[in-house]
Amino acid sequence: MADGTTETQADQNVTDGFHLLIDALKLNRVETIYNVPGIPITDLGRYAQAQGLRVLSFRHEQHAGYAAAAAGFLTKRPGICMTVSAPGFLNGLTALAHATTNCWPMILISGSSEREIVDLQRGDYEEMDQLAVARPHAKAAYRILEAQDIGLGVARAFRAATTGRPGGVYLDIPGALLGQVMDEVEGKNSLRQVVDLNAASVPAPTAVDRALDVLEAAKKPLMIIGKGAAYAQCDDTVRALVETLGFPYLPMSMAKGLLPDTHPQCASAARSLVLKESDCVFLVGARLNWLLSHGQGKGWGEPGQKSFVQIDIEPTEMDSNQAISAPLIGDIESCASALLEKIGGNWTKPSENWTGAVREKVETNVARMAPRLRNNNSPMDYQGALGVIKEVMAEHQDTILVNEGANALDQCRSIVDIHKPRKRLDVGTWGIMGIGMGSAVAAAVETGNQVLCVEGDSAFGFSGMEVETICRYDLPVCIVIFNNNGIYRGDGENWGGGEDPSTTVFVKDAKYELMMQAFGGAGVVATNPDELRRTIADAFATRKPTLINAVIAEDAGRESGNIGNLNPSSVVAQRLYPQAKK
Prior knowledge:
alpha/beta, Rossmann fold, 6-stranded parallel beta sheet, 24 helices, globular
């Protein structure tokens, strides 16, 4: 070269988009990327691995995305999912929307075609205006076009994903950006570390006073604790608030364990009673969405009977379904701390007439269910199988339970107690199918804990190929498939009388355990609760990837689990098809 510097020396003084993106992620404490490799991000994954990041490759982008979403919930930092363009991006987009709906921080990074080709629709490889597609389904979406802006783009994504109400963020990376070269020192100086990702948002003093006035006036108060409270990771503060107020409380499914489900104030086993009879509902990290019947209907008592107090960081959540008498706008730790400080030692707990009636109902219902959980039927029913899962979770309280399905989900979340925070991952706000294997991988990777994944056979079908991923990374995941040969039940009939099976029926006696054996894991069968108990114990002892084909009676389930009321009824069906009346 003219100045005497060799080309090799010059190359050592530059960096490129690949390494700037990796450096930006590392600067913001990213340790793990969940991805499916391919054009144009294959080398990005290789370079990230070479630079010390853990890069886990999945068989399908949707499950890599579900893993990133679950990682965001477990860590309070954005889970990172990386996909190829167009179809790969669309596969990951489902998980991004899932994260946004659940208010979990996640960043979806997808390679894409160049703007000048996309905008003129010239027919590039996997051409798609991904930024436009992502925007309606994400909290924010950004595209980076210049290498010097990579640090800014990553910082914007991290800030947007975590500040205020968390959510999913899309980061569009055109393939040519990764190969752009710039001065190494300038590149390093262009990177940004985001400070105080989960900034406090303190409620107004007048709002605290108003909330305490409403709560103090209640005769039959109820707390509902949502997964937002579990996400907040201020476990001691929430527990202090619950125990200081003395209210019965209902944990939503992923808030189970924030206080042990065996806590004397837990009213899960008296859910119908407390929802109907309470006169004041205090929502902590929970939303009055479909999971709570929007706070209305016959299960909620008479219209106008209740007042509502709500903690939420998003002001527009207030009054979304019911008038909120006392909104507390702020993060959960700040709001709970402000309430406790104002209360001091001056609080009168609810009357024993109320709390005693709730406790009596809980104990009665628990005692009524207990014998059903101790049966040893073969094939199993849900109660006998879940009685074993309940015992396992009591004995291994650090185990993370992943759960999805219809009957497998509905009955598991009501029967199986969780004893520690963030030890239950499930389908979340959308009630979707397919999160199982991705969430199981994230739980094992992010915590190192044993994972127990309880799946309906239908739910497992959405992500079952990821058992290869679990085996490839030798993760301590034990999958229990409740196999009743179909969706809801395995004894459905073809209403037309044809040779095809019913739309809800699977291959009879499918040998799911052989899938795990095919990839080097342990695959076994359990036909009764005693066998299920033994096979789970073996899996936990070895921490080896294990799949247990748990044989459930075909007729043990019911249509749509506990949400059959959401099926639209057909007057015509009642006349034309006798089977519809079953």
